[in-house]
Amino acid sequence: MVKGGFSSSCAALCRPGASRYPPPRCAQTSPTPAAPTQALGRGREAERRGRGRCRLSPAAAGGGGGAGGPRDMAASVFCCLRCCRDGGTGHIPLKEMPAVQLDTQHMGTDVVIVKNGRRICGTGGCLASAPLHQNKSYFEFKIQSTGIWGIGVATQKVNLNQIPLGRDVHSLVMRNDGALYHNNEEKNRLPANSLPQEGDVVGITYDHVELNVYLNGKNMHCPASGIRGTVYPVVYVDDSAILDCQFSEFYHTPPPGFEKILFEQQIF
Predict the structure, then answer these.
(1) Pair 24, 62: CB distance under 8 Å
(2) Which residues pair with 238 in a beta bridge?
(3) Which domain of life, per UniProt (predicted)?
């Protein structure tokens, strides 16, 4: 019987002060046990072949069936020792996905990123650390201090030292005056009485066709499009502007069908 990744005989060996005798069940069924050194040598060979994984035969696991010879006994002992050394789980921990944040490897030379990659100040632009692979993405920026700024999406070919963005095919942004620009063309504009102010939260949705703007959770109904290729969230600042990014735990609920940015591994 296998329990917790190794045999019941292995579990007995893991207990403090436990004796190896009586021997594991696989040893009892073996008519001609090998010498200890030979069994150990075979056990190491079996361990190398298994590349560190515990794979016991039915006989070694105490479940009956199979020859259950000395090689199985040695392999079960080494498996047991490995499981005890690794904390008894025999499992490899899963690697956690990193959090999406502002990417210091893709920012302007005079940009300053603080607060664990969540706040931008200085002069220039910065991309987020993850592209928008999924069909419908949502992210937010909170305006901590007004000045010259812009938010939207851009490819990695964008010049993050040349602001304002939106002057070429590599970026699509909403500027602080409410105008949405792509390829140096105004695509849309927020109503004059709805310009973002200090303390406001600007939400962005992108579905690989249109970019839409939300102000404090309200849809501004001013879509813009035109950018092509793999895009990333982008933000730029100047003239003492300070913005905080929010790529999860949003201030406002995303519109239906939209969600936080997912890494490619999380999508598939």
Answers:
(1) yes
(2) 148
(3) Eukaryota
Q: What is the pTM of this model?
A: 0.65
- Residue 66's CB is within 10 A of a number of other CB atoms, namely 14
46-50 contacts at long range (C-beta below 8 A, 24 or more positions apart): 46/71, 46/74, 46/75, 46/78, 47/75, 47/78, 47/79, 47/82, 50/75
Residue pair 247/101 in contact (Cβ under 8 Å)? The answer is yes
Nearest Cα neighbor of 241 from 207, 202, 268 is: 202
The pLDDT tens digits for 81-91 are 454 454 444 55
Rounded CA separation 168/159 (Å): 9
In DSSP terms, which residues pair with 203 in a beta bridge? Answer: 140, 214
User: Which of 22-26, 31-35, 66-70, 168-172 is predicted most confidently?
Assistant: 168-172
Q: Is there a contact between 78 and 44 (Cβ–Cβ < 8 Å)?
A: yes
Measured distance CA(108)–CA(126) in Å, rounded: 6
Cis peptide before 31 (omega within 30 of 0): no
Evaluate the CA torsion angle 259, 260, 264, 265 in order and state its sign: negative
- Residue 62 CA to residue 58 CA, distance in Å, equals 6
